[in-house]
């Protein structure tokens, strides 16, 4: 069921699903998805009243997701700039090397070292992104394999993609796609994202059964989820 209401100048639309839960749950997902899960037979007016009472919080979340793309593009790729990798900050050290044909990146002694034939920002950006994508592919596949024993279903495929406003997704035929930027998050948060999508192989929604499965694998998932809520918009370039 689709419902909506006016909050100031903004029209907030949301979908409603019913389950055996005892309370109304509201979730906001990127880029602008608002979902409500309500107990069976909850009147439509009661759902609207509850969601309206959370309108300010919903709008704040929607603005946070809108800001994500801005945060991602804010890097200048200059010496001393800070970049995240698995939750830790590392400073950038750019070394000009005219003998190279393309920029090369390595993490060495607590710094990102970029050997490059040019100071061109786009060339350095491209090299950094390629390094992150490779590390993300290695780490995500490692963690998918690590958690596979919890699941009877296997992913059709695991891919690392450009997803500026989503951390991961699971298609109807269980193809798992992950945003390469998740390699910047702390390892426990990356694991949460991986298991989140693995659970979607069994449940294509966020039903009570889905969250029960997730919590049976990662009991403290709420803490990891909260990190994404608070700091997720700071991940990336």
Question: CATH superfamily membership of the largest domain, which one?
Answer: Metalloproteases ("zincins"), catalytic domain
Main sheet: which strands, in order across? 1-2-4-3
Which CATH architecture of the largest domain would you pick?
2-Layer Sandwich
CATH topology title of the largest domain = Zincin-like
Summarize this structure briefly:
The protein has six helices and eleven strands. It has helices at 44-53, 55-72, 121-147, 187-199, 208-217, 221-231, and strands at 2-7, 10-19, 25-29, 33-39, 82-85, 88-96, 104-108, 111-116, 157-161, 168-170, 175-179. The strands form three sheets. It has a four-stranded mixed sheet with strand order 1-2-4-3, covered by helices on one side. Strands 5-6-8-7 form a four-stranded mixed sheet, covered by helices on one side.
